[in-house]
Write a structure and sequence with these properties.
Layout: H1 3-17, E1 21-32, E2 38-43, E3 48-53, H2 55-58, E4 69-80, E5 85-98, H3 100-115, E6 132-137, H4 142-154, E7 160-165, H5 173-185, E8 191-196, H6 210-218, E9 223-227, H7 235-239, E10 242-243, H8 247-254, H9 258-296, H10 299-352, E11 354-357, E12 360-362, E13 372-376, E14 381-385
Parallel strand pairs: 3-5, 6-7, 6-8, 8-9, 9-10
Antiparallel strand pairs: 1-2, 1-4, 2-3, 4-5, 11-12, 11-13, 13-14
Amino acid sequence: MNVSELNLKAKALLEAHFDNIVLSGELSKITMHGSGHWYFDLKDERSSIACAMFKGYNLKLDFKPLVGDFLELIGSVSLYPESGRYQFIATSMKKAGLGDLEAQFLALKERLQKEGLFDTCFKKKLPKFPKKVGIITSKTSAALQDVLKLIHQKEYFLAKIYVFDALTQGNHAPLSLIKALQKADNMALDVIIIARGGGSREDLFCFNDENLAREIFKAKTPIVSAIGHEIDYVISDFVADFRAPTPSAAIDVLFYSKLNLEQNLDLLEEKLRQLWQNKMQNYDNLLLNLNRIFKANSLPKIIDEKIKQSYNTEKQLYNLIMNRFCYNKLKLEKLQNAYLQHENFFNKSKKFICIKKNNKIVSLEELQSEDIIILSSQNSQKEAKIL
């Protein structure tokens, strides 16, 4: 019997004995193919099975199942001959609530959120240029090889990489991850990446462990959670300081490529040069202004201004004195003219007027009250009485 014959006989045997079966379990992963067919996994606490629901049947449904839904299927067991893959072919589907794992996930998420483990105020800032980076993952995983390859491609030469081997699947994985995290956190690293590639809901469920979440929360080192694919969410994503949708995305967030670093340095150099030029121009302008102010307020300038002020004051004082002199001179001239007029009148009076008493010329001092006198000049004379 060749492989094809064995697969066909197994297919016929399964379809003959496992027909019209009601199967219940939790939806852990689903792919809705472009052809319209659905391919998904159903699981319980211990096992999982690959399932398919073809387009002709799923078009009859009034809902689209989501990961974590608890489903009840009706169908038959078959085998895909090309790969020898055992699978359940569903012809009917209905929801039966949330699966146990999803319910556990939501309950733990709500409890830790109420305690504040997801609050942004506790999130530590990621380093801009990490120099010591820890990666917690399985040393044999494809995710680790992808991460190291990406770091090598970026040629990020600033960081030293430390790999901490841990289980990333199964019941013993949480304790293994906690031990690796404690070891890494005590090495004074700049950042720690907890990484795992894609997988089913149950494969990633070890990252929903409460003890692991609390260990991540109390770590001194910034933690990046990079678990599964972009659509996958686990508790470590919420409690970590940063959630990367994939391990490769974590590397893109944390590490610059050598080319990007060079470009950034060129931009920084140009900005620095521009800032320097602006600063120098500002200082040049300031120096020119200070020089103008200094010249305007320098000692020779002040002395020159004071001399000019002194000249002006002297000129004003001279003009004031001369004005006063002129004023007094005019006033003196007026007095002098008045005096001369008086003298002239008096002289004239003395020259042309004489006083006679009893036909004798007398002076004013000799006159007495009631005296009768005669005032005479060259051309006239007049009699008067002294009062």
